[in-house]
Automatic annotation (TrEMBL):
Binding site for L-glutamine: D103
Site (Important for beta-aspartyl-AMP intermediate formation): E381
Active-site positions on this chain: C2
SUPFAM superfamilies found in the cross-reference section: Adenine nucleotide alpha hydrolases-like, N-terminal nucleophile aminohydrolases (Ntn hydrolases)
Pathway: Amino-acid biosynthesis; L-asparagine biosynthesis; L-asparagine from L-aspartate (L-Gln route): step 1/1
Gene3D superfamilies: Glutamine Phosphoribosylpyrophosphate, subunit 1, domain 1, HUPs
Segments forming domain Glutamine amidotransferase type-2: 2-215
Protein name: asparagine synthase (glutamine-hydrolyzing)
Biological-process GO terms, alphabetical: asparagine biosynthetic process
InterPro entries hit by this protein: Asn_synth_AEB, Asn_synthase, ASN_synthetase/amidase, AsnB_N, GATase_2_dom, Ntn_hydrolases_N, Rossmann-like_a/b/a_fold
CC per GO annotation: cytosol
GO MF, one example: ATP binding
Amino acid sequence: MCGITGWVDYERDLTGAREIAQAMTDTMSCRGPDDEGLWLSPHAAIGHRRLAIIDLAGGRQPMIAEADGRDLAVLTYSGEVYNFQELRDELVSRGHSFRTYSDTEVVLHAYLEWGEDLAEHLNGMFAFAVWDTRKEELILVRDRMGIKPLYYYPTHDGVLFGSEPKAILANPMAERVVDADGLREMLAFVKTPEVAIFKGMYEVRPGQIVKIRREGVTKRRYWRLTSYEHTDDIPATVLNVRGLLDDIIARQLISDVPLCTLLSGGLDSSAVTALAAHDLKAQGLGRVRSFSVDFTGYTENFKPDAARSTPDGPYAHDLVRHVGSDHTDIVLDSADLIDPAVRAAVLRARDLPVGMGDMDTSLYLLFRAIRSHSTVALSGESADEVFGGYQWFHDPKAVNADTFPWLAVGDVVGQLNLDLVDQDLLRMLDIPGYQADSYHDAMAEVPRVPGETGLQARMREISYFNLTRFVQMLLDRKDRMSMAVGLEVRVPFCDHRLVTYVFNAPWAMKTFDGREKSLLRAACADILPDSILRRVKSPYPSTQDPTYGVALRDAARELLRGDYLPSQEIMDLVDARRLVSRSDGRPLPRPPLERLLQLDAWLKDYEVKVSV
């Protein structure tokens, strides 16, 4: 896993722009703490920061393909290609020779063999750029599910690109402007494909190739979800799901550095941990290492709420006993979560004020602690989107709503709360209209099966929305929090083979036992304890410690003492001061305070100009 960046300019000699190109590369140091590289030519500057995972001695980047003493193509690559060994064998049979054992070199030679069609041969998570010196063109490629990020910023004479917005913003040519559409995207909680919030910046869409030539920018999709009639019965489907999972886990355990799993005690992370434990044991490689996040006093003082009926700790420990993992609980308290330095690091990792409060901060702290022991972690992320685990899959009101289902069930993660946003601005932005337009655009994309009607047709739509919109928000969060500390997180449930297969299984089959995620539960029933098989879905934990809310109020109160705040362009500070001065004894709502604090820090630290 790494950080990539670069600059193409067809009218400028970039060999004299080393200082700017280096500054862009330096912003990616958190993603690649092990090594760095910069390649310059008259019209392209390619930068790279490396987190060494496979072939620690080899695999340095940018990696150059040469022939007869001249450069053919230059690659800057982030990610893991899990079928690189098979591809290497195929490429050798086609006459290619290799100097390293890295998957990076396999990707480079795959480009030489298949050109931009190489993406269709890759199984993995990746974002990369190839500068073809022969054609003087750049291609930007992102994995099918969008696990790894990739942004670009077209200029008058070329393009800037990077793993994160900060790499692009390090170039003076990139303006730090957010316009009305950027604000709409930031507040609407919809994740519109290709929109990057900063004006003039775009995100490479999952499964997309962006090509930059002198003539301009072109885009094409090399992969998208497809629909077909599912003909397997339930036993065959369960067997196929398990077979896919066995193969996926085995591939994703390959690493030349210490590896672990993230364990919450839910079905998804428990399945990944149990499958990994089984595979490692079969290979004689010892116990799997696992990590959980917890809060001081959380289990002892837990109070059920609308989203969470049980604490994670007891279930995680059940799984640990069942599979015999080498386990560590990372226990956090409110002082950790409210620490200004930690909150600043989280915002810097995000680049945008779109965080989830203490759920982001705790994830960052969890990953920071894990990084002392492991460099790679396997996660259960995206199983809910694939198998239908969220409450809105099973709530008739949400299913039948004429909007994205997560917008219809209430404020699940504090993203819908706009209480302190200036009301005149909200009326101008028309967030409901923006959400409706985004929803109808997504509806138009849904692949259909001829003759499919009723609940099955609707659940295909709901699944599509989750697999192309909602999952992106969580993958972004996981990538930024993990890579901010140089930890690679792999997401087995995002394997495109599994995603496509389960997407096409009938909804009745996905709920055949009357529960959520029936197919996953059945596929892993032989390796999980009964307590986890019976457990009801519980989202990522949020601290229930009242002192956290008090600390938020105190921080907001201190902020609001200032005469001028950058956030006053967006937030109603009169309402904000009224809220933090409330003395009726009721707990203050956390989401609007989180938004105020984060937004003000972002506008100030990133020197963002709001233009509406």
